[in-house]
Design goal:
The structure is a single chain. This protein is mainly β and 121 residues long. The protein has one domain: Jelly Rolls (Sandwich), CATH 2.60.120. It contains no helices and 9 strands. It has a 5-stranded antiparallel sheet with strand order 1-2-9-4-7, with no helix packed on it. Strands 3-8-5-6 form a 4-stranded antiparallel sheet, with no helix packed on it.
Length: 121
């Protein structure tokens, strides 16, 4: 995991986060309540594994045990962006993990590098 965060001055969101090696370990982008505005998942390094980015409204979830609040898929070999016009509110924290299987039980990291970028406030 290599997490970078920046403060922005845009109408989309106040902060930008980038995880350059998203995996099955939970990463907290914001440790308090916030609103997720957009997400970009770069799964172009994978030739056959789909990526599932699971978001949690929890500061320290246990991947595979804690129920996630949202899952965003990225097919193998693709880069995909999600934009939420009204934003998605998280009351406790904005945390994510990236795995090969959707749903609560997915716990395996991809064998290739996945890059996840988020804009939030």
């Amino acid at each position: 995991m290599a997490l970078t965060t920046l403060t922005l001055t845009t109408r989309l969101g106040a902060s930008f986060g980038k995880d350059t090696s998203a995996n099955d370990s939970a990463v907290t982008f914001k440790g308090s309540s916030g609103t997720l505005q957009c997400v970009e998942i770069d799964n172009t390094a994978a030739s056959s594994e789909d990526a599932y980015v699971k978001f949690y409204d929890h500061a320290s979830p246990t991947v595979g045990t804690t129920s996630n609040d949202m899952t965003l898929p990225a097919p193998a070999g693709k880069k995909i962006a999600y934009q939420f016009s009204e934003g998605i509110a998280f009351g406790t924290a904005i945390t994510m993990a990236c795995v090969t299987t959707p749903g609560k039980g997915g716990t395996s990291a991809l064998s290739s590098t996945v890059i996840v970028k988020v804009v939030y406030d």
